[in-house]
Design goal:
The chain is mainly alpha-helical. The protein contains seven helices and no strands. Helix 2 packs antiparallel against helix 7 (about 125-145) and helix 5 (about 95-110) packs across helix 7 (about 125-145). It is globular, with a radius of gyration of 15 Å.
Length: about 150
């Protein structure tokens, strides 16, 4: 992560992580950045990456929640949102409407990366759908953030 050193908010936060061990705050900051990126992708009609960045934002916020309870350990190396929510101790208290968002986001991590799924995914990821998706991902990350 040397490339983050001295690059504004993220660089300063990474310095805190290395020096003071604020890993949970670091993951939460990355989640915020990814949500902002999803919004930027939406404004430029790059809908394939809106879904991907929403998944990334939720994944990183779940890793922030996991990290809050495991200060001296590295979060699980998985992109599985339900597994992360479970291991962070959040799955049981997650409202059903937000659990559906986890399920909705799950395939967007993999499908956005592989060309065999790209065309079908692009048909689904309309501007209207992506606008709603960013809103749902924002509500989910906010819910997780309140539990850090």
């Amino acid at each position: 992560m040397e490339f983050l050193a001295g690059t504004g908010r993220l660089g300063a936060l990474w310095y805190d992580v290395v020096r003071h061990g604020f890993e949970s705050r670091y993951w939460a900051s990355l989640a915020e950045y990814d949500l902002e990126t999803a919004g930027a992708m939406l404004r430029t009609a790059r809908h394939l990456y809106v879904g991907f960045m929403c998944h990334q934002a939720v994944e990183k916020m779940l890793k922030a929640a996991w990290q809050a309870g495991h200060v001296d350990r590295i979060p699980p190396r998985t992109h599985n949102l339900e597994r992360l929510a479970s291991e962070a101790g959040l799955i049981e208290s997650l409202p059903e409407r937000l659990r559906r968002v986890l399920i909705e986001l799950e395939p967007l991590n993999v499908e956005a990366r592989y060309p065999t799924h790209r065309d079908a995914l692009l048909k689904k990821l309309t501007k209207r759908y992506c606008t709603g998706l960013v809103g749902r991902a924002t509500r989910l990350t906010a819910w997780i953030g309140k539990r850090l």
